[in-house]
Amino acid sequence: MRSVNPSDDTAKEKRRSTSRLNHRPNGKGKSSRRFAIAMAAALVASSLLMELTAEPTTHAATNVQQSSSNTSAQSTASSIEKKLHYTAVEGANYYTIALRSDGSVWTWGRNLWGELGVSEKVRYRHTFSPIRIPELSNVIAISAAGGGINAAVQADGTVWEWGAGKLPSKVESINSAKDVVTGSFTVALLQNGTVWSWQRPGAQGIDSDFVRKPYAISGLKDIIQVGSVGLHGYALKKDGSVWTWNEPDEPGKVLSKPTKIKGLTNISSITSTDTSLLALDKNGKVWGLDEKGKAFSFHYDFKVKKMDGNTQYMLLLTTSGEVYSYGRSVNGKEGKVNHLSGITDISAGYHHSLALSSDGTVWGWGSDKYEEAGAPATSSGGMVYKPVQAKMGTDVYLNGELFQSMYAAVETPKTVQLPIKAIAAALGAEFEIHKVEGSLDHYTLKYDNRTITILPHETQYVITSADTSGEQVMQLPEPINNYSGATTVPFEVLRGLGLNVSWDPEEAMLTIDDANKKE
Fold first, then answer.
1. pTM score, two decimals?
2. Residue 268 has pLDDT above 60, yes or no
3. What are phi and psi of 241, to 5 degrees?
């Protein structure tokens, strides 16, 4: 899901919107009810037309131009370029992925079925602290699908897929992509304006033994954006026309020939809900298709810049940077989303919504059962009604090498908590949990000739050394903790092992160095 503005090279736009509203939407009265009725009618009609599979919808990619180190620092825009920030965000089914300005990809939310793609074996319920997707760098576009399959395009034109319990893997035969969309099948837009698609084994709606490798869609050229709904592919041409084709659903069948959709002209971007195609024209008007495939327009009083949506609801971003939500909104309220300003991008997850502001921060609201909004829930029932700001992912470097773990480094108001078992293993240290009569008593961390003893719920630790007698007591900003199933310790603990440890919040970077082991 998500529209792309072909004229904007720095951030592809998203897709989605709706309503036959003739008055200004305010979430109340006749105009709001008309919007909801029109939206529901359009979605039902489109579902009959599309014969969709059961797999949740697609989120289209968002392209981002990497920041330049030569940019002048005198303007707000240039200062944002230099400061580490998010450049794109995608909300899926109870989880989120985001692209950072350094080309790295981060994820948070539910990981019960391996949808985050950070480990093939480890599962945990939730995380609000972003985790870096392994093996990915210099990424320019991201895409997330509700079924837990995600994709990214690297600057070298390669496409990578991950999720559903799988780590990132390179898609063969694709080496010049600029955009990608995941769903029941995957669509890639190449740099020369042609389109390729492929299907994964066991995808919903597709025979489990059927795997179709990447293949060029015949007859499509001068394409500037791609999309999909179920097993239907869509492509937007440079001339503003929209084309569609059908994917095969079993062995022996072939791709249908792309055909032009009548009634859609002067289109600047396309998107889709679970059940329908939506198109935004160059005048800021949104169009949909009825049950007979006939195009119709939705009416509202403001001009839409971007749109995104889902089966239940729709997000609209106006040219003035305001966000509106209609339908069965994630927070139960239609109309303008308050407490947001300067918004440049939006994403409609299945149960939570996301917005990207001009300063590169991500804001989430709606369901937060799995902390998919980007912070612990602020209301009962696991809900966030007022948008909360998501954290910036923290990179950890051990002796100059990037440390990768399926557990996040957790930034708190006082410190950064580290997954100590994984950190200790990477350092060659020994971390142990000690119990007395089945109950937790204390922790020990041993490295070289030093031993650190930490008591649960205490804000201090004790250092003993084989080289010296006596004990040294050190203070901690907060106690040892447990996060997403991993035991975590404040990074200051590692200084007690004689390591050089520093935390740079501006660069979201924590470095751990052992001076004795440097050459």
1. 0.84
2. yes
3. -90, 155
- Report how far residue 328's alpha carbon sits from residue 334's, in angstroms, rounded to the nearest whole number: 8
3-state helix, strand, coil in the chain (%, to 5): 10, 40, 50
Q: For residue 33, what is the enclosing H or E element? A: helix 29-50
Rounded distance between C-alpha atoms, residue 129 and residue 407, angstroms: 9
Indicate left, alpha or beta for 483 from its phi (over 0: left) and psi (-120 to 50: alpha): beta
Classify strands 166-170 and 159-163 as parallel, antiparallel or unpaired: antiparallel
Tokens of 515: 């001076």
Spatial separation of the C-alpha atoms in residues 316 and 322, rounded to whole Å: 8
Query: Tell me: the pLDDT tens digits for 168-207?
Result: 999 999 999 999 999 889 999 999 999 999 987 644 444 4
Classified as helix, coil or strand, 112 is coil
Contacts of 121 (CB under 8 A, 6+ apart): none
Q: Quick count: other Cβ atoms within 10 Å of Cβ 476? A: 18
Q: 116-160 pLDDT, tens per residue?
A: 999 998 889 999 999 999 999 999 999 998 778 999 999 999 999
432-479 per-position pLDDT tens digit: 999 999 999 999 999 999 999 999 999 999 999 988 888 999 999 999
For residues 218 and 258, what is the distance between their CA atoms, to the nearest angstrom?
A: 8
According to DSSP, the β-strands at 472-475 and 509-513 are: unpaired
Beta strand extents in 390-499 (DSSP E only): 395-398, 401-403, 410-411, 416-419, 430-436, 439-447, 450-454, 460-465, 472-475, 481-483, 486-490
Residues 115, 320: Cα–Cα separation, whole Å: 35
Q: Which helix (H) or strand (E) holds 503?
A: strand 500-504
